[in-house]
Write a structure and sequence with these properties.
Helices cover about 40% and strands about 20% of the residues. By secondary structure, it is of the alpha+beta class. It folds into 2 domains: about 70 residues; about 150 residues, Heat Shock Protein 90 (2-Layer Sandwich). About 5% of the residues have low confidence.
Length: about 260
């Protein structure tokens, strides 16, 4: 099975920008790739310095070791951020709108380890499919599952995915039993680079819910946050239009 990063098409080669790309997304995408190359060089620099010192018979110690570790941590954070920016710029374009099976997509995302050990996932997929680009569905599920785990206040927890049909809309909900998001911040956390907790190495860049919000907008749907499981946690709900006829299920995604 393909690695999730490959399914999201995250490699070092910029996509050939098609006619369906907005000017803003196109510029963001191309500039992000250029910056990412420099960021990767910065990530490697502390290792190169440590190797040079080793060849001289020296080992980084004290402030030098601390500064090299600081460079490594910030470089890794920048690299993750650029990955997220590239993902964000690709949402809703250069894909084909398909009828995607939710259970298969969930299994694919879980196989890549997006949920840490200790977290239990259940689902109730009364509406078993949605109309969406394959890459965007992978991005959406991975973002929401990571968000549920990374912002949990315990090392174990429960996540529940459910989907049902409401007229011509698929209603997809991802619920968790974490600490939840205060009501006054529920609109703000949908903005890019917004997180309520302190920024820590290896943690969220504040882009997961922004990915979900952009996907909802690009497909003509909506997103809202509510309370989660058993009186705590968060429920992220997306309402996404369903194609009215089989002949309309495959098309190039529009601008938006």
């Amino acid at each position: 099975m393909e690695n999730l990063a490959k399914r999201m098409d995250l490699d070092d080669r910029p996509d050939t920008v098609g006619a369906d790309a907005s000017d803003g997304d196109t510029m963001l995408h191309l500039v992000s790739h250029e910056i990412r190359e420099s960021v990767r060089a910065l990530v490697e620099l502390p290792l190169i310095i440590a190797d040079d010192l080793a060849r001289l018979g020296q080992r980084p110690m004290g402030p030098v070791a601390q500064h090299l570790q600081l460079m490594t941590d910030h470089g890794a954070r920048l690299d993750r951020l650029m990955n997220d920016v590239i993902i964000h710029s690709r949402i809703g374009r250069m894909q084909t709108l398909r009828r995607m099976n939710l259970k298969t997509a969930i299994d694919d995302v879980l196989a890549d380890g997006v949920l840490p050990r200790g977290f239990r996932l259940r689902h109730d997929l009364r509406q078993s499919w949605i109309d969406i680009g394959e890459r965007d569905l992978m991005v959406l599920l991975a973002a929401l599952l990571r968000n549920a785990a990374q912002h949990h206040d315990k090392t174990s927890g429960n996540v529940f995915i459910r989907c049902h049909r409401d007229a011509d809309m698929a209603v997809l909900q991802v619920l968790d039993d974490g600490p939840g998001i205060p009501e006054e911040f529920r609109g703000k956390v949908l903005d890019p680079l917004t997180t309520l907790g302190p920024r820590q190495p290896g943690r969220s860049n504040g882009m997961g819910l922004a990915h979900a919000a952009k996907i909802a907008r690009r497909y003509g749907g909506s997103i809202r946050l509510d309370d989660g499981l058993k009186g705590r946690g968060t429920c992220v709900e997306l309402r996404l239009p369903l194609a009215p006829a089989a002949g309309q299920r495959m098309r190039t995604l529009p601008n938006g």
